[in-house]
Amino acid sequence: MRECDLRIKKDILRECFIPRFEEKRKLNGKWMMQERILFPGYVFLETDDVEGLYLCLKTIPRLTKLLGVGGRFVPLSDEEVAFLMRFGGEEHLVEMSEGIIEHSMVRILSGPLMGMEGMIRRIDRHKRKAWLELELFGRIQIVEVGLEIALKTV
């Protein structure tokens, strides 16, 4: 990400970011909030000059591949952009969500997972995490996020 900021002119690159998510981890017996990368291996770039950006990216030695088809960029769809903005906001940070489990059904009470209960594939209450199944970048992605389950009823 730093390479992109240093090597690409500001008139070509509007924003460069790596989406993150919050999680709680137990360190030395205490639960601490930490941030982790949401999509490991991906760097997101926002531009209006796709060709200029492509030429600049070719000068970055550690860049391994670009998301594309047939040598061309594949931009995110409007739906993907809207989802990522709703999910991570302007800070590109997916905050911890809170929910409950009632009669084996997950109900999210607060946080970015509200309304996305159907995408949750797995929950680990002990580690305070949920895994979502999303269609992004032209394929199904399994995404790990923070989820605190406050109550479970039978």
How would you explain this protein's 3D organization?
The chain is built from 3 helices and 12 strands. It is an alpha+beta fold. Helices cover 16% and strands 46% of the residues. A 5-stranded mixed β-sheet has the order 9-8-12-11-10, with no helix packed on it. The protein has a 3-stranded mixed β-sheet with strand order 3-2-7, with no helix packed on it. The mean pLDDT is 88. Strand 5 (68-69) and strand 6 (72-73) form a beta hairpin. It has helices at 2-7, 50-57, 78-88; strands at residues 13-17, 20-27, 30-37, 44-47, 68-69, 72-73, 93-94, 97-102, 105-110, 120-124, 129-136, 139-153.
TL;DR of this structure?
The chain has 154 residues and is of the alpha+beta class. Helices cover 16% and strands 46% of the residues.
